[in-house]
Amino acid sequence: MVGLVTLLVVLGILGLVAIVGIGIYNGLVGSRNQVDNAWAQIDVQLKRRHDLIPNLVETAKGYMKHERETFESITKARSAAMGAQSVSEVAKSEGQLADALSKFMLVVENYPELKANQNFLALQEELTGTENKIAFSRQNYNDQVLFYNNKIQMFPSNVVAGMFVFTKRDFFEVETALEREAPKVNFA
Amino acid sequence: MWELIRTNKRNSILLMALMAVVLLVLGAVLGMAVVGPEGGLFGLGIAAAVWLILTLVSLSSGDKILLAASGAKQVTHDVHPQLFNVVEEMKIAAGLPAMPKVYIINDPAPNAFATGRSPQSASIAVTAGLLGRLNRDELQGVVAHEMSHILHRDILYVTLAGIMLGSVALLSQVFLRSMFYGSMGSRRRYSSDSRGGNQAQVVLVVIAVAAAILAPIMAQLLYFALSRRREYLADAGGARLTRYPEGLASALEKIASDPAPQLTTAHSVTAPMFFANPFKRRRQQGLSDLTSTHPPISERIRILRGMSGGASYKDYAQAYAAVTHGRNVVPAAALTEDPIQIRQGQAGPLGPESTPMQVHQIGDIMRRVNGFRFLTCDCGLKLKIPPDFPAGDVQCPRCRRSLAVRPR
């Protein structure tokens, strides 16, 4: 009789632990999906920036004959950024790309004819919009990563996280001083 | 964020409950005056029915009615890429579940509003005048302000409160007019009644007339109190979303100094929905703070410019306290968040001369909204092709070159 009661109590406790564990596990999966989703949003905007660059360079080339180096550094930074895999790699190469682009925009200031070109202005607006969207979605991504990493490290969810191998995610930190301020695209 | 929305909700429900009391009491008093002492319940029922019908209509299609009444046209990315990009940027910053619909209003007065029942089905409308006068940072500030209205669920409450105000105004008007036009006939009927009933009836009618005059004023004051506070909060939210209070401040400054006449399609009930008070010319001078739907623009600018430390709600609350010496507008729960840094402006030096857009360019925005196409001739002339122009060649009026108009 006593044995049966003990068995029931033990089963009850085990059941309770299992239910709590399932809840924590689902919470972890949920916030990991949030992180992935936030990353996908950044990725869309980064791809859009990569797509815009060839058009921008093509349009500008006709006006800027003597700026070979500027164009080359942009093209190189772009292909490096497109090849990047991990979050920290992407952050680094995208930072370099942003640097190259802002240098390019400074050079554009010397070509008033280019600045008056409707096609170029439209591309420039798209680029500014994309840069801003990257900045704002980065904010969202980092918030989600902070939330997720906190869960993994704090008790009791760290136990479940350890059992099912939930790994910490990297923040999307930009590498350049220029990017840390704001995308410096001038269209005044 | 959520605490802010919840506090907002509680305050709004309180104010709306007060307005409902005003509405129902008015209905009861009018009922007693028209039918007799036993008509109180009848009047109350009528008031409730009017309110219910108007509320149902506004919930099901209020945004469409408002947009149509303002002459707003929905636009795509092609019509005004910058506006569309800015709305999308703010949508991302606000973490909104869906992209709001974007509208342009054909009006030279710079203004904007947001509408819609929920963040899932919101709309943002800006006037062509606003697009013509503001640079990118300023436009971003205005759109962020409207996005905050959406995020704080202001649109729903302002719509509901506006309907309540409308019901009160409607009942009062109907009663006062029927009193005025029907006074001759009804006097006769009262005198043939018994003496005592007549006396009581006269007193009731006097009370009802007073109520019919006072109730709309009371409802309006409640409505204004609700909307002014929300404007401050939306400014705080806008600064927080853009992380650049100067953009919003500069936009307000340009709007305040704008020479264009007031918005033609605005109405006193729709006024609180706009970014800046659409009746600035007539109302802003002299009248007290109580009767305005919006805080004074100069005060809004000074608060935004006073945010030196950062762009969070806390910074706004500090700047607000410093400028107005009043009590806090931001609910305490929203003050605990992490600091947010102010970023650099993008659009270069801000000032009235930084966007030299002319009146004809504002006209071009509207032509594009209405389906016009633009062809630039090699001689530099810009041809505006109306939407019903048949495909084929068109001759440039200046240099006689022939330009191809592609079929759409």
Give the H and E element order of chain B.
Answer: HHEHEEEHHHHHHHHHEEEE
Q: How many DSSP E strands of chain B?
A: 8
Overall 3D shape of chain A: rod-shaped
Mean pLDDT of chain B: 77
Largest sheet of chain A: none
The fraction of residues in strands of chain A falls at under 5%
Cα gyration radius of chain B (Å): 25 Å
Radius of gyration of chain A: 25 Å
Give the count of helical stretches of chain B.
12
Mean pLDDT of chain A: 84
Q: Name the chain pair with the biggest interface and residue counts per chain.
A: A-B, 21 and 22 residues
Q: Characterize the quaternary organization of these chains.
A: heterodimer
Largest sheet of chain B: 4 strands, mixed
User: How much helix, percentage-wise, in residues of chain B?
Assistant: 55-70%
> Low-confidence spans of chain A: pLDDT under 50, at least 5 residues?
none
Major beta sheet, strand line-up of chain B:
1-2-4-3
Strand content of chain B: 5-15%
- Give the CA-based shape of chain B: globular
Low-pLDDT residue intervals, each spanning 5 or more residues of chain B:
187-194, 281-288, 348-356
Share of helical residues of chain A: over 70%
